[in-house]
């Protein structure tokens, strides 16, 4: 093969690089001179490329150790000379006369040396970049820049500045720097003006320098921070001790907050950020935690006085310094709760014994006065109690939003205290229902929609605080029934809105009967409208409006309001009814009986299989009555109407004379109205504001022998007159009525407990007695807190009725029987 076609087989090698033969020590001295020139600020006269190549050659010539150690020696020498020449005398002056100016001059000189050193090291690092990249990595040494920082730390701060010439016993600049910084901080705390820029530079220096023993920690954390915290603790301990003796609570809180803000600003301005939490903790310990209880009970101007005068700004400052700390916050919570209990107790005491103040004798006398008050006066006081409790809650709700920053802990404290205050009054469910009833009947007039909604929200809030919600349900159903049947509700929208809010609070089961009552009234209104369009309506002979009620929805009526049957005079006289039957109300007028029969026939025509039971206790009527030539329209209850019809003209003169004067016993015999409601009806007709009957004797009480006659002399400037029934309004219950209501509530609770037990056992099939009791209490706690004995009694009844049986293996375990 020809040689021209052969490919070359050899490699072309780079030219051998020859390291110039130079004296390493001479080259290093050249670099050392350049470093000194950098510190002298003669950088413009230097060629960085030349010095970079010099360092490069030294590393290549295996003189990296000479270069690295030599640079360290040059830096150490420069630092010692700089300290001795420009700083040491300033440090001595600051020690001898520690004024703000001397401290400032000393710290400024240290900061200036540090600043020049950092600038120089950045340039030196660039010149010796090759040393960092090759020699330092191979030898596992700190970088040139890090070595320079260590030189500053070990030469300037930690050892004595000079052992030969500093014969002053100095232990180094570190202690002097720390003392000077602390003196400057102390001066600023006392109102002196200091150079924050210098202090910031010193702090940054100490933060950047790393501790030799623990490189992860800054020198700041080792030499300055502990002493700063210690001196701060001493300073604020003494300051708090002075303030607690001379300042009131609001001023103490404001100064404490000002100190916290000042220290936070100080940290942000010139201290390490890591110090903020520690320094704040020192202030909180000394200013707040140590005196947390004492601040609140400062005589004449503590927490109680702030709450009483509604000092929202002062309470806000107090809360801000207490809130971050669990123990002081607990003290504040307790103080607020105690004050709520005190004020709530005073409101309740005013209800039970108005005007009582101090002394058991006075309280007993006041309680006796309360017992002698009339039902209407007690009702007014009861409504006032609810208003005052809600007004008190509004005050603390304002504190919560404006002073307590809507903190969850304070909300819990306020609510817990009000729960305790409200439930301390065993009549709270009844009084709240009365309050709602009064407002829904009379309190919504001329109120803006926003005010109405606020009132309903506050009412529901108080309902939420009730423990015995089932007792409230009982009273609310009774009051709602009276409002609906007497058409006294001011706003149907408000009624429906309140029921909706209660439904949200307790679920649909709680409001099922309430909603059923509204449904009955709506169906009755629809039926009345349809009836008026028929021929049967004309045959009634009068304007009859009937509400048909579902028994399961409406509350159980008191004995005086039990269902009654219609009985005519003729049937009574023929022996068709038992005179001793208190439920056989007699209608003395034929038109009334015929109208009731006609309506019953109309209703049963569309609802066959149902049974109508008439109730007169809740009815009312409009009568036109002639009094000596003057005619008035009277709005009366159904019982009052029956009584007045006994005094109408009769067919014979003898009967008329007999009818004109009747005793209470005769009226009761003729009408069969129970004795207690009959007495109240007669009092309303003969002893009230509008006396359409004359009573002999003229006393308030009604006895069976008292006589009544028609008052032909009755006069009134009004044409239409409403005659209210004594105690027919929704008033505070008497002790007898309360006992009856409690019996009803107790019976309903037993039913509810039994149903809950059956529901639990149907799901679990088998449960131990303790577990069953606990689960029953848990499920019923939203309505009331059942006693363990009640649950035990209900379990016994269910065992007797064979809903449950005891386990043969363990008598404390129950099995569910399907």
Give a quick set of tags describing it.
three-stranded mixed beta sheet, 818 residues, 5 domains, 5 helical Cullin repeat like, mainly alpha, 64% helix, elongated, 34 helices, three-stranded antiparallel beta sheet
**Which regions have little confidence, pLDDT < 50, spanning 5+ residues?**
160-171, 355-372, 557-582, 650-655
CATH architectural grouping of the largest domain: Up-down Bundle
Number of domains: 5
- Overall SS class: mainly alpha
Q: Radius of gyration from the CA trace?
A: 48 Å
**How many helices does DSSP assign?**
34
Average predicted confidence as pLDDT: 83
The name CATH uses for the topology of the largest domain is 5 helical Cullin repeat like
The overall strand count is: 11
Q: How are the SSEs ordered, and which strands pair?
A:
Elements: H1 24-39, H2 48-60, H3 64-86, H4 88-96, H5 100-127, H6 129-139, H7 144-157, H8 173-189, H9 196-208, H10 219-246, H11 249-270, H12 275-288, H13 292-296, H14 303-308, H15 312-322, H16 326-352, H17 360-371, H18 375-402, H19 408-424, H20 428-443, H21 449-465, H22 469-485, H23 492-506, H24 508-532, H25 535-538, E1 565-567, H26 569-573, E2 584-586, H27 590-606, E3 620-627, E4 630-637, H28 638-645, H29 653-660, E5 661-663, H30 664-671, H31 675-686, E6 693-696, E7 707-710, E8 720-722, H32 735-764, E9 766-768, H33 769-780, H34 788-800, E10 804-806, E11 813-816
Parallel strand pairs: 1-2, 4-8
Antiparallel strand pairs: 3-4, 5-7, 6-7, 9-11, 10-11
């Amino acid at each position: 093969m020809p040689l021209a076609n052969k490919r070359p087989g050899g490699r072309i090698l780079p030219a051998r690089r020859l390291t110039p033969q130079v004296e390493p020590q001479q080259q290093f001295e050249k670099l050392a001179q350049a470093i000194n020139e950098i510190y002298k600020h003669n950088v413009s006269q230097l060629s960085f490329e030349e010095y970079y190549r010099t360092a490069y050659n030294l590393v290549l010539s295996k003189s990296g150790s000479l270069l690295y150690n030599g640079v360290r020696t040059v830096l150490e020498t420069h630092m010692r000379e700089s300290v001795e020449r420009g700083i040491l005398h300033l440090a001595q002056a600051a020690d001898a006369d520690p004024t703000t100016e001397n401290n400032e001059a000393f710290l400024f000189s240290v900061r200036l040396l540090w600043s020049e050193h950092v600038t120089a090291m950045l340039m030196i690092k660039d010149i010796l970049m090759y040393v960092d990249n090759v020699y330092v990595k191979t030898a596992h040494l700190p970088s040139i820049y890090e070595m320079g920082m260590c030189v500053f730390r070990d030469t300037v701060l930690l050892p004595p500045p000079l052992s030969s010439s500093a014969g002053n016993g100095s232990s180094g600049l570190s202690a002097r720097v720390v003392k000077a910084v602390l003196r400057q901080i102390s001066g600023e705390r006392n109102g002196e003006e200091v150079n924050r820029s210098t202090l910031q530079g010193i702090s940054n220096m100490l933060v950047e320098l790393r501790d030799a023993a623990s490189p992860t920690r800054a020198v700041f954390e080792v030499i300055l921070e502990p002493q700063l915290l210690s001196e701060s603790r001493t300073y604020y301990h003494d300051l708090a001790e002075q303030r607690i003796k001379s300042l009131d609570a609001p001023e103490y809180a404001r100064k404490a907050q000002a100190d916290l803000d000042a220290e936070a600003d100080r940290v942000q301005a010139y201290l390490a950020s890591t110090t903020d939490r520690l320094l704040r903790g020192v202030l909180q310990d000394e200013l707040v935690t140590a005196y947390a209880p004492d601040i609140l009970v400062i005589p004449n101007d503590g927490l109680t006085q702030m709450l009483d005068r509604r000092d929202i700004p002062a309470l806000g400052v107090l809360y801000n310094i207490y809130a971050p700390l669990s123990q002081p916050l607990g003290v504040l919570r307790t103080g607020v709760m105690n004050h709520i209990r005190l004020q709530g107790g005073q409101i309740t005491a005013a209800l039970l014994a108005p005007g009582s103040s101090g002394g058991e004798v006075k309280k007993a006398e006041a309680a006796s006065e309360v017992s002698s008050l009339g039902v209407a006066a007690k009702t007014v006081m009861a409504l006032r109690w609810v208003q005052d409790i809600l007004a008190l809650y509004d005050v603390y709700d304002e504190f919560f939003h404006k002073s307590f920053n809507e903190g969850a802990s304070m909300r819990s404290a306020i609510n817990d205290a009000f729960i305790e205050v409200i439930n301390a009054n065993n009549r709270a469910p009844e009084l709240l229902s009365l309050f709602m009833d009064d407002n829904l009947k009379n309190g919504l007039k001329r109120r803006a929609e926003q005010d109405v909604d606020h009132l309903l929200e506050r009412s529901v809030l108080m309902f939420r605080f009730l423990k015995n919600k089932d007792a409230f349900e009982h009273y609310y159903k009774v009051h709602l029934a009276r409002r609906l049947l007497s058409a006294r509700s001011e706003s149907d929208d408000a009624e429906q809105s309140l029921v909706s809010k209660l439904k949200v609070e307790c679920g649909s089961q709680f409001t099922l009967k309430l909603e059923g009552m509204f449904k009955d009234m709506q169906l009755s209104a629809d039926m009345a409208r349809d009836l008026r369009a028929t021929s049967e309506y004309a045959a009634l002979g009068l304007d009859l409006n009937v509400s048909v009620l579902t028994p399961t929805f409406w509350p159980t009526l008191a004995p005086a309001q039990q269902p009654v049957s219609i009985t005519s005079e003729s049937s009574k006289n023929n022996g068709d009814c038992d005179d001793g039957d208190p439920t056989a109300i007699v209608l003395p007028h034929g038109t009334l009986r015929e109208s009731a029969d006609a309506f019953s026939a109309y209703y049963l025509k569309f609802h066959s299989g149902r049974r109508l039971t008439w109730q007169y206790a809740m009815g009312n009527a409009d009568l036109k009555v002639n009094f000596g030539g003057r005619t008035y329209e009277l709005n009366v209850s159904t019982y009052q109407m029956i009584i007045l019809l006994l005094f109408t003209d009769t067919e014979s003169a003898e009967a008329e004379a007999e009818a004109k004067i009747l005793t209470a016993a005769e009226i009761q015999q003729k009408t069969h109205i129970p004795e207690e409601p009959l007495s109240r009806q007669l009092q309303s007709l003969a002893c009230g504001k509008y006396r359409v009957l004359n009573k002999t004797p003229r006393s308030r009480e009604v006895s069976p022998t008292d006589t009544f006659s028609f008052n032909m002399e009755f006069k009134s400037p009004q044409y239409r007159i409403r005659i209210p029934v004594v105690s027919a309004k929704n008033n505070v219950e008497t002790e007898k009525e309360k006992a009856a209501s409690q019996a009803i509530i107790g019976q309903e609770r037993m039913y509810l407990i039994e149903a809950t037990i059956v529901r639990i056992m149907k799901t679990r099939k088998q449960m131990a007695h303790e577990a069953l009791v606990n689960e029953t209490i848990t499920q019923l706690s939203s309505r009331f807190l059942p006693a363990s004995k009640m649950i035990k009694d209900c379990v016994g009844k269910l065992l007797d009725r064979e809903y449950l049986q005891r386990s043969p293996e363990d008598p404390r375990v129950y099995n569910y029987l399907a």
